[in-house]
Write a structure and sequence with these properties.
Blueprint (H helix, E strand, L loop, with lengths): L3 E6 L1 H16 L4 E6 L14 H5 L14 H21 L5 E6 L1 H12 L7 E5 L7 H4 L5 E4 L9 H33 L5 E6 L4 H13 L3 E6 L3 H11 L5 E4 L3 H8 L11 H6 L3 E3 L6 E4 L15 E5 L2 E5 L2 H15 L6 E6 L16 H14 L6 E5 L8 H16 L1
Parallel strand pairs: 1-2, 1-3, 3-4, 4-5, 6-7, 6-8, 8-9, 9-13, 13-14
Antiparallel strand pairs: 10-12, 11-12
Helix pairs in contact: 1-6, 3-4, 7-13, 9-11, 11-12
Length: about 425
């Protein structure tokens, strides 16, 4: 089968631009199927797949979507597009999905993209690409492609952008058609051996030691940046059975969720490993840290009475206090209280990050102790063993010891 691209757009406002992109794709010997998801006026250009086609064999078949309130129509089109592309991929009818849209189109198309598995190329040409895109990308591998100008006409500049976008899709579809199967078997295998780890800049040295130890033992470590998206992605891959054991060494996402930091992974953090009953060693690394915007954008409520650190020009970190660490501990206990003995906590009493040590800007033993005591009290009647170690997270041997605990659990449960 020739490489084929699904090109999805709001044809009522972006039909000419979509047809230009389609012709660019076809010029490279790749097939292209266009899909209209516009809920406005009847488009001038006709897509290969219409709104009517998307609604076939659903509860919405025969409805006049364009007569509904916009919000309701967008929700329906999002649902039917997600169903349509999922069924098409099951039948291996395309090798990449591309979308172009503004606010409404980006919402509709990325919802469908997120329903597709990792690997299939997903590229979204959008006017929103330079803003906060986490709501559109979430834990997927969508590539957000900036349109720079609005997607509102063809001119010398926009044609260049659209052509570049089309050729990115051609490359992705060609790769998927010819190369993806070479990786799929290894990636999707659920043979015990793929181990999830979480990391920050301030936990890197410890996680790197653990990673090397796992590689020496012929396991396959998969490291996730605890940036919110990273934690969600790891939870998703645990739920899907790809990751079969977890060394969760960076939990700053929990504090971000509680306090309102940038790296919020949501309320479901720590749930997947417990639900799947896989071996989990939880180390409260970076529980001392909340990531905030650049210093000039830090919320006023955090500018007085708090320890702030300029991590880099675009990121400020804030030291968690006693009250916040108690809340972080309570969150952990709520998630782990019903876990089985395949879960252990490994606590570095000497410090939780590279800057949480004597002389470090985040050194605060009192705040750490509040976290540790909350965890010990909350899990005292559970099946979760808590192991306290006097060392600092960065001390030689701590990262390797965490791996040894995990390996012992894996021997018991696999």
């Amino acid at each position: 089968m020739k490489p084929t691209i699904l090109l999805t757009a709001t044809y009522d406002t972006k039909g000419r631009e979509t047809e230009f992109i389609k012709n660019e794709i076809l010029s490279q010997g790749v097939d292209c199927i266009t899909i209209n998801v516009g809920v406005g006026e009847q488009p001038v250009e006709e897509a290969d797949v219409s709104l009517y086609d998307l609604c076939k064999n659903t509860q919405y078949e025969g409805q006049e979507l364009m007569s509904l309130p916009r919000g309701q129509a967008v929700a329906i089109v999002s649902e039917v597009l997600e169903r349509y592309v999922s069924l098409e991929l099951e039948q291996e009818k395309f090798h990449a999905i591309l979308g172009l849209g503004g606010a409404g189109g980006t919402q509709i198309i990325t919802q469908a993209m997120r329903a597709l598995p990792y690997g299939i190329p997903k590229i979204m040409l959008t006017t929103l690409a330079s803003g906060n895109t986490r709501w559109y990308v979430q834990d997927s591998d969508i590539v957000m492609f900036p349109s720079i100008t609005d997607i509102a006409g063809l001119n010398s500049f926009s044609r260049m952008i659209y052509s570049k976008f089309a050729h990115a899709g051609v490359s992705g579809a060609t790769w998927y058609a010819r190369r993806y199967k070479l990786f799929e078997q290894d990636f999707m295998s659920n043979v015990p051996g793929k181990i999830g780890l979480t990391m920050y800049g301030t936990t890197t040295k410890c996680v790197e030691r653990s990673k090397r130890r796992l590689e020496e033992l012929h396991f396959e470590p998969m490291v996730f940046h605890a940036s919110g998206a990273g934690g969600r992605a790891m939870e998703k891959m645990i739920s899907s059975g790809i990751i079969t054991a977890c060394l969760d060494m960076t939990i700053a996402e929990i504090g971000a969720h509680i306090v309102g930091g940038l790296h919020d992974a949501g309320p479901d953090r720590l749930e997947a490993a417990v639900y799947k009953k896989i071996p989990l060693v939880l180390v409260p690394g970076a529980a001392d840290t909340i990531v905030l915007p650049p210093m000039h954008d830090v919320p006023e409520k955090f500018k007085t009475g708090r320890v702030l650190n300029i991590h880099n020009p675009t990121m400020t970190t804030m030291r968690t206090n006693v009250e916040e660490n108690i809340q972080i501990g309570q969150f952990i206990c709520a998630k782990l209280k019903n876990a089985g003995p395949q879960v252990k906590l490994f606590i570095p009493k000497g410090g939780l990050s590279s800057i949480d040590q004597p002389g470090g800007v985040f050194f605060n033993p009192e705040a750490n102790e509040a976290l540790f005591e909350t965890i010990k009290h909350g899990l005292k009647d559970s099946s979760v063993e808590i192991i306290e170690d006097p060392r600092h997270l960065y001390d030689p041997g701590f990262g390797e010891a965490a791996v040894d605990i995990l390996i012992d659990l894996m021997k018991q449960y696999y």
